[in-house]
Amino acid sequence: MEAPPFSEELSKYPRPPAEDSSSGETTPVQTNYSRVELTGKHIYVYQVSVTNLDARTNDKVASTTSDRQVTDPQARSEIFIKAQAKFSSKRYVYFDGKEYAYSPRSLHKHWTSGEESREVTHVGGDSGLPCQFQVTLRALRKYESKELLRYCDGSDEVPDSYVQGFLFALDEIIRSCSKRQFLSTGGGRWLSSYRPVVTPWGFDVWWEYRLTMRAGRGALFVNIGAKAVPVISVGDLAELSRLFFEKKVAALQQQQQRRSNDGQPKGSVIDLKTWVASFEPAIRGLQVHVPGTTSIATIAKLSAQPASQLTTPGGGESLAAYYQRKFNLSIGDPTIPCAIMTSPDMLPVAVPLSLCRLPGEDRRQVQGVVAPWQHGDFVHASAVAPSHRHDVLAHGMRMVAKCGDAPDLKAFGIRISATLASVSARVLDPPRIVMQRGSGGKSEDVVGSGGSGSGCWEIGSGQRVVDSAQLRSWAVVVFGQPGGQQPALVRAFITQYVKVCVGLGIDVQQTEPPIKYATAWNDIARVIEEARQLAEKSSGERERRAQLVFCILPFNSVALYGEIKRVALTLVGVQTQCVQMSNVRAHNPRLLTSVALKMNVKLGGFTANVKENEGGGALGEEIPTMVISADVNHTTEAGGMSVAAVLSSTDLRGRRYAGTVLQHPQRMEYIENFDAIIRQSLRIFYRSTGGGVKPMRIIYYRDGVSDSQMQMVKQLELAAIYRGCRLIDPEYRPQVTVVLVRKRHHSRFFPLGDAAGAGNCLVGTSVAAEVVSPLVFSFYLLAHRSPFGVSKPAYYLVLHDDCGFGLEEIRRMTLNLSYMYPIVTRSVAMPAALYYAHRLTGKGRLQLSRAFNTLPHFTKKGKEDSGSAYLVPVHEAVRDTMYFM
């Protein structure tokens, strides 16, 4: 089919299909949405400016700009309240303290009059002198409620920008009225101690709420999200520091014991630099009471020296002597640093942590940052049962609904239901998972280990991967000194690893690979190249390149891991597999299986096939289909570049993929020269399927795109897909479907009826009613089972659909693709192709060895086989493999 002109067709979204009740029974699920009734007719938006007319007291009242604009939100709000009565004393108005004011009625006699100003006198600042200010309201926009309700009813005549602006205004109004019900900690954060989780690690888990207005099908909704936050539960910062490092010190002591057993030298348990770098972010910004003062000070940083080395300014008196002489206080442990404060009336010296107390009766504040070694404890503490999280959300919504009788919400005609909404859902049957049985290669279905709705299965005795790779030539590199028991541990690990591979049906022809120890890490390229040559020499097949370099790392090091990947993938051209020495000692069977499956995929094999069940949705030879996925990662490496990854399937079942890595200018979301990538992907597909097969359908899954960027995807990337097909053949017109995938949202679903309180919704639960977009073909799909906490569904929006998919077909295909991630024996949250795109952006970040302005750019004038589509270089020996696993 001919690509339609963009102005006519490509700018339109596919209409939402009706839920097909004949395709299966529906089941009710409860959401974290609540219905909103909007009876007010209008919302008027004004842009606010607050000007300081008294130039002599600019610095005494609030921070201002060069044109005398007051910038402090609190000062702006106080001044605006005084001016409000002069604009209209009988009309309610809400000011966000920043830029905009909202009112249910016009504050001007004539709405189109532009702007009006009022002068007010305000006393503020340290001087306490009266100052003159001018508050100016400029009419910005008038929103009509009937237009928003028309949009919810499916009218495409209401512009998206109008709807998004209206929802933003409602967000601000509802949040301002609701925040009084919660414990505000500043910065727009609302906390609640409802059903907190108490831990022994110096913090408790409280809940931070966030409200967002959403336009659903036929109704308005407010979505409530609850995020776990660590709240400090001890008032003494010295005690907090002990709890903060307790587990880290214990882990380091165990690590040093292992180093001693391996014959390696010991180091200090934890040095002062690490101490400061780890603990300072956790307490930065905390408000504490300082001895000798009646005020509250704010911690800015920690001292670079321990308390024993610090002296008072000027006099040079030791810190211990100063506090003993002036306050008769001991500074506590002299080996730890002190807190440096930002308050103007603080003590003229650093404050020992043992003297810092959190103010207030309960002495609780939000901890700034969770340390890496605290992260596991925090995640497990916050991953409460779904019924617990449901109660927290329901409590928050009840608190918000209490504001419905407040004068402010009544003035705007906003009423929020106190009950979480229930919607209908479909539970899709899982696909058939097929593996091999025994050495004869007979296929058989794998039985799920947790029921049909669990999304999990186990590789039982005698079950083998459906496609086995051959491991003929490989070597092991151990980074570290070969002392103590380490050589025996490494050899035992490799023996067990080979045994696991053979048990999975992977053809390991070299069961005893050579082992090389790398004691110097300043030349990783030489180490990897020598390991490659050692593998080829030991295998006796010099005409074949080494397939794998198995790397054992002494500890978790992003720098070492990144350099190994960069060298192997861009310079040497060999697959690598990295594990840490701690895992070598553990011999964890699950880890060994995961590493074996990952290696099998890198070398050309695959774990299991997915076959269609009665509902269909699986890919096959009947209609040749190519799956494409893309993601853009914005990073700080290489001068703040953006890394884009594009994956395309190379077989008819959508199992194997080839990837392209692109480096973009900073924060550029669209993918440059997408048509050249499509042309290259089509050629790889044609070659990999035996030559002669062109895809009749292209399914494009795109991640990381916001509402404001949806049209950009259609204008640039969809049009580029059509152009890329024409570059192959002017008459080639495959059907194209574009699906946008979102995982950063606050939507959650909970089972009702007989399944209520039993945990998460079943894998395969899909919601396509009420709480989805009223205009765009969209649905939620829960394709995985969360091991703990509440499972989070992915949100899919179909931006374009030449294939004419129905709701049932496209979500079954999406669910089936979520069962095809080959390194785990369970379904994942999104189609496997999107996980590959995430992994490839991560690998691409490791390959950014040059600044953007020195990289070769795309050129459409280049030769067809020049490889110009690979802006970030990948060695030709691994280019078309799944090296990103």
Textual characterization of the structure:
The protein is of the alpha+beta class and 885 residues long. The chain has 4 domains: 10-15 and 609-854, Ribonuclease H-like superfamily/Ribonuclease H (Nucleotidyltransferase, domain 5), CATH 3.30.420.10; 40-145, no CATH class; 237-363, Beta Complex (paz domain), CATH 2.170.260; 468-602, Rossmann fold (3-Layer(aba) Sandwich), CATH 3.40.50. It has 21 helices and 36 strands. The protein has an 11-stranded mixed β-sheet, sandwiched between helices. Strands 8-9-10-11-2-16 form a 6-stranded antiparallel β-sheet. Strand 25, helix 14 (558-572) and strand 26 (575-580) form a beta-alpha-beta unit. The longest helix has 25 residues, at 237-261. The radius of gyration is 31 Å and the shape is globular. The protein starts with 5 loop residues before the first helix and ends in a 39-residue tail after the last helix. Mean pLDDT is 83; it is low at 1-7 and 855-870.
- The CATH homologous superfamily of the largest domain is termed Ribonuclease H-like superfamily/Ribonuclease H
Uncertain segments: 1-7, 855-870
Terminus-to-terminus distance: 36 Å
**Which percent range describes the beta-strand content?**
15-25%
- In the CATH hierarchy, the third-tier topology of the largest domain is known as Nucleotidyltransferase, domain 5
Q: How many strands in all? A: 36
What is the approximate shape?
globular
**Quaternary assembly:** single chain
Over all CA atoms, what is the radius of gyration?
31 Å
CATH architecture of the largest domain: 2-Layer Sandwich
Average pLDDT across residues? 83
Secondary-structure class:
alpha+beta
Strand arrangement, major sheet: 30-29-28-31-32-36-35-34-17-1-33
The figure for the number of domains is 4
Fraction of residues in helices? 25-40%
CATH hierarchy, class of the largest domain: Alpha Beta
Q: Helical stretch count?
A: 21
Largest beta-sheet details: 11 strands, mixed
